């Protein structure tokens, strides 16, 4: 897989300054990706700025939102994208469920954001040590609603033998589902994958 943050994007030197203004509309997916890259860099370097959301930001956002990226990621309590991407109120449109699957509610939320909010970038973020993917890889039976999640992941990882490969296969599969969505295709939104490392805090973006 091709690592976008190593090959495909420019890197302004001042990551702390590379943050979106609350009222700014971003319609370029490369710019959106850079906001995420530099937010993760701030997080890794303990230079976070998102906690500095002020009353003025809330006033700008009270009547509308202009998120620059949609993040579909896992519900795991260790993987909050607002934190590891160091983004403020109104910056990212977040969808979370166990195993970051593209079920009907996730796809419907993505459709809303790309069509009505004009968000140019969708990122599917998997993470290491994902319990939902591990459960799907191990097999077995689960409670009814959880079984729906496990079955969706099993479809994505049917040819995988280890957890790391399964996690990447799952994110790739979900990204392909999103790319095939007719609303996403109509709007021209870009869909990429990423992997979050729980221990290091680093996000690696990949082209699927």
Describe the structure.
The chain has 208 residues and is α/β, with parallel strands linked by helices. The protein has a single domain, classed as 3-Layer(aba) Sandwich (Beta-carbonic Anhydrase, Chain A). It is built from nine helices and six strands. The protein has a six-stranded mixed sheet with strand order 1-6-5-4-2-3. Helix 6 crosses helix 7 (144-156). The chain is globular, with a radius of gyration of 17 Å. 41% of the residues are buried.
**How many domains?**
1
Fourth CATH level, the homologous superfamily: Carbonic anhydrase
Helix count, DSSP H or I runs of 4 or more residues: 9
Rounded to an integer, what's the Rg over CA atoms? 17 Å
CATH fold name: Beta-carbonic Anhydrase, Chain A
Order of helices and strands: EHHHEHEHEHHHHEE
Termini separation comes to 7 Å
Please state roughly what percent of the residues sit in beta strands, choosing from under 5%, 5-15%, 15-25%, 25-35%, 35-45% or over 45%: 15-25%
Helix vs. strand class: alpha/beta
Please report the first level of CATH classification, the CATH class. Alpha Beta
What level of helicity do the residues show?
Answer: 40-55%
- Let me know the largest β-sheet: 6 strands, mixed
Tell me the total number of β-strands: 6
